[in-house]
Specification:
mainly alpha, single chain
Amino acid sequence: MDFKRVSEIGGTVMVVSLLVMTATLLISFPLADRFSIIQQAIAHIGTIVFAGVFKVGYVAFIVGRYERNLSF
């Protein structure tokens, strides 16, 4: 298995999910008055989902580094 690729995919997943999670948080709180209640509810759910996706990406990133004997 190519663990360098696993780390790259994990890092990409973390960055993308962080960007989406930031957008969902902005929709949920400071910009809530510009969105309907349905959109806000979806954004709240999205915050939880993409936080989980971020964690999965982090685990993949760490596993890829661990298997290549790299440390921070």
